[in-house]
């Protein structure tokens, strides 16, 4: 648990450093807010973002957990405490200093023939 807590703190520090380097909260913050939008869309279609297995198929393996931008579904509350990443809403709260609404996803546009 201690190792996971240290890892989560490092994630917060990495987020803060990204904001500092880019001089913009909206870079990383915008990406994380779009992740929330994707989660909301999955909840609308499947009743729960955790039921949309297309979005996290195979990502529950411990070998790839450290590379994930967003958390995967948990079987228990204990697993949540063992996660190396903080939740997406908490990361957004820390970046902006308050809760932020999800951002709309860009529409996929097909280029017109020439």
Précis, in short:
This protein has helices spanning 2-22, 26-46, 62-65, 77-81, 88-96. It is mainly alpha-helical and 114 residues long. The N and C termini lie far apart (58 Å).
What does this entry look like structurally?
It holds the Pfam family Peptidase_M48. GO terms for molecular function: metal ion binding; metalloendopeptidase activity. With 114 residues, the protein is mostly helical. It has one domain (2-96). The chain is 53% helix and 0% strand. The longest helix is centred in the N-terminal third of the chain and has 21 residues, at 2-22. The protein is flat. The mean pLDDT is 76.
Q: How many H/I helices?
A: 5
Overall structural class, as computed from helix and strand content, comes to mainly alpha
Q: What integer value in Å does the Rg equal?
A: 16 Å
Strand residue content: under 5%
**Total number of beta strands:** 0
The major sheet is characterized as: none
Shape: flat
Report the span from N to C terminus: 58 Å
In the predicted model, the low-confidence regions spanning at least 5 consecutive residues are none
Number of domains: 1
Average pLDDT: 76
Helix content: 40-55%
Sequence of secondary-structure elements: HHHHH
